Each structure stands twice: as structure tokens, then as C-alpha cells.
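Quick check before the chapter quiz. The format below is the same one you will see on the exam, so make sure you can read both the input and the output lines.
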Amino acid sequence: MPKKSASKPRRYPAPSTALSSSAVMEVKAGVFKDTCLQLLDDVRDRNLRIVVTKYGEPVAKLVAADVAMPSAFGFMSGTVIAEEDIVTPDFDAWGDLV
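Here is the expected output.
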């Protein structure tokens, strides 16, 4: 049985930064399949955008997820409906107990 030689790490094309603020990388579908997990890490860590191509035609775009946390201030704005005065005591509702 022939010995397998140590496989070299796959290298994918360097990103192009000519037209945008974040780097754009074009990757063939087969290369994407082989290096998917590494590419996902690169998208997250290096703010890359990846265009996956099949036979030279773009078929998918991979971008980092927008994970900004919502602000604690004003997130419930418009959810409370005020109907009456809540400060003045309502003696009629308590009846003879007061």
C-alpha cells in the first residue's frame, strides 16, 4: 500500500481591496468546499466578503453576520399604552376598605 505524502495546506486567492472598504475574495466552489471552515473564520475575523463561483459565474456571497447588540435605552419605546392617570388614587375601586 503506497504511503500518503504529507498534504500541503491549501492556499486560496488573496483578497482584492481595490474598490471597497472590506476585502473581497473570489473562490471556486470546489475550493470553498475544501476550506469552508477556514473561510468562515476569515470572514468573521478579517471582515472579508467572499464570492463563491461555479464555472466562473458567481453563485453565492458570504459576509460576516451583523451581531450588534441592541441598546438597553429605548428598546421598548412604543410598547406601553397609557389610558388613564395612574398617580391619583382610585377610592371607588376599594369601596368600604379605605
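If your answer matched, good. Residues 14-65 form a domain with the YefM-like fold fold (CATH 3.40.1620.10).
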